[in-house]
Amino acid sequence: MSAPFGHRLADAVAARGPLCVGIDPHAPLLERWGLPDDPEGLARFTDTVVEALAGTVAVLKPQLAFYERHGSRGLAVLEDGVARARAAGALVLLDAKRGDIGSTMDAYADVLRPDHLLAADALTVSPYLGPGSLQPAVDTARQYGGGLFVLARTSNPDAGTLQHAVVDGRSVAQVVVDTVRGWNTPGWVVGDPLPDPGAVRDVASRFGPATGSFGVVVGATLPELDVDLTGLGGPVLAPGLGAQGGSAADLRRLFGRGTAVVPTVSRDVLAAGPDPAGLRAAAERWAAELTG
User: Fold this and answer.
1) Distance CA 142, CA 129 (A)
2) Alpha helices per DSSP H over the chain
């Protein structure tokens, strides 16, 4: 088993800064890069992004759907890209948003195993079949040192339809956050009383050796933070920077300076391609803004 994902993330952020860059090779972007919308174009795109960024960015976040749409050849491209990104020192967060029960969830979580063909460092998952549905993924992550980011409070326009619904006096989004806080509490399992926020050593100094391996997804474009992240004990993945309207100022407004936030940029960096130097320059601009 490798060191826990939270520890590896803290090390990567200390060495490279907190930026996460999404790898989203959708058909219009391939066209803008002058590439065909086929496995060959997908491979050229992925090779360029990995070569340009994997040696300097803390986290790369390939979107699984854009590889699956090309079938087995697309997945082979992703397998190669993940291996090369990790070899260059980047952590790989597979953006799959999986969510199911029992053996199916267990199978989805296999990508966190070091002997898997994808062998990602972390995986995004959806909790809307109930907190217990994700337990197989939690178990796999713990066994192999992987990480999970759970959809909690996303900023798409109709997210509140479900995430603001109230269960036993708490919003669904808050239940998700509290459950993840429990996962970062040694000995806690679903069904136990939720731990007090003080039971988890919060990452008050942002990333550090106490950073847990289980985090939540909270959009960077929310008008206000309407979930309590106190004592989460793990990182917050914050998508929505750049083309979606989010900024470094929004991160400070929503999370302050004490939360371990992994800010995610995709379109604003990828639009600088296909020139590798342009990709690196765009990522460096965002890295500088985020640490300024």
Assistant:
1) 21
2) 5-16, 27-32, 39-53, 65-68, 71-87, 102-108, 135-144, 160-163, 172-183, 248-255, 267-270, 276-291
Domains, the chain, in order of start with CATH, read 5-291 (3.20.20.70)
Active site (annotated) includes residue 97: yes
pLDDT tens-place string over residues 57-111? 999 999 999 999 999 999 999 999 999 999 999 999 999 999 999 999 999 999 9
| pLDDT for 244 | 86
Catalytic-labelled residue, pool 16, 26, 97, 201: 97
- pLDDT at 205 > cutoff 90: no
Interatomic CA distance for residues 53 and 85, integer angstroms: 8
Angle between helices 276-291 and 248-255 (to 10 degrees): 40
pTM, two decimal places: 0.94
Nearest to 237 by CA among 136, 124, 101: 124
